[in-house]
Design brief:
The complex is a heterodimer of chains A (about 325) and B (about 100). With about 325 residues, chain A is an alpha+beta fold. In chain A, a hairpin with a 5-residue loop joins strand 2 and strand 3. In chain A, about 30% of the residues are buried. About 0% of the residues of chain A have low confidence. Chain A has a domain of about 90 residues: Urease metallochaperone UreE, N-terminal domain (HSP40/DNAj peptide-binding domain, Sandwich). In chain A, helix 2 runs antiparallel to helix 3. With about 100 residues, chain B is α+β, with helices and mostly antiparallel strands. Chain B has 4 helices and 4 strands; from the N terminus they run E-E-H-H-E-E-H-H. The model of chain B has no long low-confidence stretch (mean pLDDT about 90). The chains are: A alpha+beta (about 325), B alpha+beta (about 100).
Amino acid sequence: MKYADYYAALGVERTASPAEIKKAYRRLAQKYHPDVSKEAGAEARFKEVAEAYQTLKDPEKRAAYDELGQRPQGEEFRPPPDWTRQHAGAGNGAENFSFDDVDFGDLFARFGARGGPGRGGAGRGGQLPGQDFEVPVEISIEDAFRGTTLELNLSMPEYDASGQLRRVPHTVKARVAPGAVDGQRLRLPGKGGKGFNGGRDGDLYLIISFKAHALYRATDHDLYLDLPLSAWEAALGATVEVPTPGGAVKLKVPAGTPSGQKLRLTGRGLPRPRGGAGDLFAVAQVVVPAQLGDDERRLYEQLRDQSKFDPRRGFGGEGA
Amino acid sequence: MTDNEVFWLDEHRVVSLAELVEFSGLSEGELLELVHVGAIPVREARGAVYTFSARVVTVARTACRLRDDLELDTRGLGVALRLLERVSELESEIARLRAQLPSA
C-alpha cells in the first residue's frame, strides 16, 4: 500500500490545531468539491483532501495516523505489527496480516465503525451499511439507440471478518434499454459496497455520457448532423442519402437551401424510453471542391459571368 | 451472471418521500425544508403526502454530499442547489446550441 501524507494534502503543519485543520479543509473543499468545481483534476484532489480530513479531524484516528510516522508521499509502506495488532483488527495474526488489497485511506475506516462509514453509521449489533458508489460510464450514440449491456469491472471496499475494509474486484452487469440520453442517471439497488454484519448493501449509480461521435451531436433525444451539399445541390435542390442511427434515409433538399439551414427528419433521433423518438436535424453545409478540373473551372467561370447573384448585397456598400 | 435491476432516474419514475430519504441520505425534515424553499420540486402533493420525479434523487444526493462535505445548513443547501440547477440549465443550453453548429 502507498503512504499518503495527510498533512501535506491539507497544506498544514503536523502540529496544526484542530481549528487550523478544519479551516484548511473548508478552504480546499469549497475549491475542489466535484459538485461545484469544474477544474481539471478537482475530483481526485477533493478525494485526497476529504480522506485527509476524515482522519485528521478525529483525535483517535489522528493519533493512530501520527504513530505511523512521516514518510514520503506515495512510498510503498506496511504498518508495523504492533500498529496492525492494535488498530487493524489483526489480533495475534498481525505478522501475517495482508495489506495487499487494503487502501491506505481504508485503514482508518474501522475507527469509523464506531462513527460509521458511508451513510447512517453503525446500527444495532454493529451493523454497517455498504457505501453507495457513483460511476461514470461512456456509451456510444448507437448503444443509446439500440440499448446495450454494460459490464463494469469495479473495485469496491468490503469489510472482512475482522472489520477491515479491503478492495474487492466486482463485475456488475447492467442492461441499459434504448432511450438513454447524455447525463442519464441509473440506479442499481444493492450493487454498491457490501454491508457489514447484516447491514444493507449500498447502491450503485451510473452516470451515462456519450462518446464523441464522428457524425452525430446529441442534445437530449435529438441528433444533429452536418449535411455537406454541393453548390448546385443547394441551389437546385436534390434528394440525398443521409445516415441515421436506424439506417440511411432519403432526404429531399429544397432548392435554395443556404448553409446552416436545418432540415428535420422527424422521429429519426434517439428513441424515448416511453415511446416515440427525437428528431434528427441535418444542418446544410455548402461546400466547394478544393481543386477544380478544367471543365469545372470553365463552368464556374461561366456562372460567375452570367449570374446576377450578389451574396454580399446586404453590405449595401457600407464601409467601402 | 444475470442482468441487474436498473432504475432510470428520470421524470417517468415516481419516488415517495420515504424512498427519497433512503436514496439520498438526507433526513425527512431536511428534504421537506428543501421542498419548502423550492430547491427540490414536488411532482404531486396530496395533503402532506408528497411524491417526486425520480430525477430529483440526483439533486437530493448532491444536497447530501454538500451537507456532509461543506457542512452547509439547509438554507445554504437551498441556495447552492438553485445555483447548481441554473448552471445545469445554462450548460444544457450551451450544449444544445453547440450541437447546432457545424463541427468545423
